[in-house]
Design a protein that fits this description.
Layout: H1 3-9, E1 13-18, E2 21-26, H2 37-52, E3 58-63, H3 75-79, E4 106-110, E5 114-115, H4 117-123, E6 127-131, E7 135-137, H5 151-158, H6 161-170, E8 173-175, H7 176-181, E9 187-189, H8 194-206, H9 210-221, H10 233-247, H11 250-254, H12 260-266, H13 276-280, E10 284-285, E11 288-291, E12 294-296, E13 317-320
Parallel strand pairs: 1-13, 2-3, 3-4, 4-6, 5-7, 6-9
Antiparallel strand pairs: 1-2, 7-8, 10-11, 11-12
Helix pairs in contact: 4-5, 5-6
């Protein structure tokens, strides 16, 4: 079997069970773990399975390889007119994760650069362990766009407002050490240890009383038992309202598809949310859907189960056990 055939056959998302911890790995290292439609479904389904399994008490999200944690949405897929957030999964958001809160604690094991959508995955996590090779940033404004997957309103809640505003308005990136200084991540470790440390932290959480942990998370984050976060509704609404004006502006139309130089800086198109031709054709763009003349982020939830989605196919899970 050739390497190409192996890559094609490899699961896009790996789901492994380590006692009471579920490990979800974005498994597209050759594409810097960029998000496509299948990844969105697989991650979203894994989160649903974790939330409904009383034996799972914490979730760790990481990326395969050492080149990137996640490069955001797959620009190549978008250029082919493919949806990166498939129908019926819009409410889960980018990677089936950014607008998909669950009752179990979630930890991002950031194994490399996490720009654009990658940073938004970190912001959607409860805790984060970063490799010393990681970097963070929301460079959307450099492309004439906004961070549409929660970054624009979540970053100011995680950092001092003036620091968050500088990063949002300049599109600058920060190192893992700087992220630690700003309390964006819990700790920074050598790259080879990032997954081990994240799993250890998840296991420490899993050792505690699960109902008490889940109740504490809901109280701390203002999260309902059904998964909703009323405190974020204004942020999502504001993002939706602003997005419709920005996405079809001349600024966005002039924002180019990344050149090889910029692609090497930002990853596989993750931070260029769309090309002008895609905007005109009203195609999907990372983190949100363009439906001219308006833009819809995520359908409103009408009840505690409105965000649920029946799992269409079994998720292969690898079981690991360190003892009874």
């Amino acid at each position: 079997m050739t390497n190409t055939e192996t890559e094609v056959a490899a699961p896009i998302v790996l789901v492994e069970r380590h006692d009471h911890v579920l490990l979800i790995t974005l498994n597209r290292p050759q594409a810097r773990n960029a998000v496509n439609a299948e990844m969105c479904v697989r991650v979203g389904d894994a989160l649903e399975a974790a939330d409904n399994d009383p034996e799972i008490r914490a979730v760790v999200l990481t990326g395969a390889g050492d080149k990137a944690f996640c490069a955001g949405a797959d620009l190549k897929a978008i250029s082919r007119g493919e949806a990166v957030i498939p129908k019926d999964c819009e409410h889960w958001g980018l990677a089936g994760y950014v607008s998909h809160p669950i009752s179990k604690p979630t930890i991002a094991a950031v194994n490399g650069p996490a720009l654009g959508g990658g940073t938004e995955l970190v912001l959607a996590s409860d805790l984060a362990i970063a490799a010393d090779t990681a970097s963070f940033g929301l460079p959307e404004v450099t492309r004439g766009l906004i961070a549409g997957a929660g970054g624009a309103f979540r970053l100011p809640t995680r950092l001092p407002q003036v620091v968050a505003m500088e990063l949002l308005l300049t599109g600058d990136t920060i190192s893992a050490e700087r992220a630690l200084e700003l309390n964006l991540v819990n700790r920074v470790v050598p790259a080879a240890q990032v997954l081990e440390q994240a799993l250890n932290l998840a296991q420490r959480i899993a050792d505690n009383a699960p109902l008490a942990v889940q109740a504490t998370k809901r109280i701390a984050l203002g999260q309902s038992s059904g998964g909703g976060r009323p405190g974020e509704e204004r942020g999502w609404a504001a993002t939706t309202a602003e997005l419709s004006g920005v996405a079809f502006s001349e600024d966005a139309q002039e924002g180019p598809v990344p050149s090889p130089k910029s692609a090497s800086r930002y990853g596989q198109g993750a931070d260029c949310r769309s090309s002008p031709s895609l905007l005109r054709r009203k195609r999907w763009v990372p983190g949100y859907i363009i439906r001219a003349p308006s833009v819809s982020l995520y359908p409103p939830r009408t009840g505690p189960e409105a965000h649920r989605r029946e799992i269409a196919s079994p998720i292969p899970v690898i079981h690991f056990s360190t003892g009874s």
